């Protein structure tokens, strides 16, 4: 893999987003891009750019640096579609420490994913199994996560890892449901 096909570093991207005046976290934007991809949203790049770049000043150097990272994030997510199982990872802080930052990242990833996926409309929902629908409800619940008072003990760290794996597995499940639905629809 080249540097252009790897997700940006979470911390570097967080700094760039903050310096450019974004309120979103890298996790939320990764979830958004992945939601757009899985839902098969038409003209996803245009929507991505419209949602994120409309307020950016093209002459602002910090905004330009941030835009480069955002484009890399989008390109990485969309280039991984064919081999998503082998390359997919959530864009979250790299330390496995249960603190407000890591919980906010998980919560934000879920919110971003649901937003991007929701742009696919009702036709996407029809291609999902009951298990995928349940996973989406769980993602909605995780998106409401209280980020205050987290315990950074072994149990909390283990739970954070499990949540990350659950989200990852659910993405694969949704992807497979929608891919198999496309195959069925193509045959009809």
What does this entry look like structurally?
The protein is mainly alpha-helical. It has helices at 10-19, 26-39, 44-53, 61-79, 84-87, 100-118, 122-126, 130-142, 154-187. The longest helix is centred in the last third of the chain and has 34 residues, at 154-187.
CATH homologous superfamily grouping? YgfB uncharacterised protein family PF03695
Looking at CATH, which topology would you report? Answer: Four Helix Bundle (Hemerythrin (Met), subunit A)
Query: Terminal Cα separation, in Å?
Result: 37 Å
Could you tell me the mean pLDDT?
85
Provide the domain count: 1
Short description:
With 188 residues, the protein is mainly alpha-helical. The chain is 68% helix and 0% strand.
Can you tag this structure with a few keywords?
single chain; mainly alpha; Four Helix Bundle (Hemerythrin (Met), subunit A); 9 helices; globular; disordered C terminus
Q: What's the helix and strand layout?
A:
Blueprint: H1 10-19, H2 26-39, H3 44-53, H4 61-79, H5 84-87, H6 100-118, H7 122-126, H8 130-142, H9 154-187
Helix pairs in contact: 1-4, 2-4, 2-6, 6-8, 8-9
């Amino acid at each position: 893999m080249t540097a252009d096909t790897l997700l940006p570093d979470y911390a570097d991207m967080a700094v760039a987003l903050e310096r450019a005046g974004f309120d979103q976290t890298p996790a939320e934007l990764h979830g958004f891009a992945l939601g757009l991809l899985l839902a098969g949203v038409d003209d996803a790049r245009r929507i991505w750019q419209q949602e994120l770049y409309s307020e950016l000043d093209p002459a602002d150097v910090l905004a330009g640096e941030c835009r480069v990272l955002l484009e890399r994030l989008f390109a990485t997510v969309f280039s991984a579609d064919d081999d998503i199982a082998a390359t997919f990872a959530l864009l979250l802080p790299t330390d496995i420490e249960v603190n407000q930052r890591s919980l906010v990242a998980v919560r934000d990833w879920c919110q971003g994913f649901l937003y991007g996926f929701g742009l696919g409309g009702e036709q996407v929902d029809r291609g999902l199994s009951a298990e995928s629908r349940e996973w989406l409800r769980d993602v909605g619940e995780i998106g409401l996560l209280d980020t205050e008072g987290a315990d950074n003990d072994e149990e909390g760290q283990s739970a954070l890892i499990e949540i990350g794996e659950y989200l990852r597995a659910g993405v694969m499940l949704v992807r497979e449901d929608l891919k198999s639905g496309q195959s069925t629809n193509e045959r009809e």
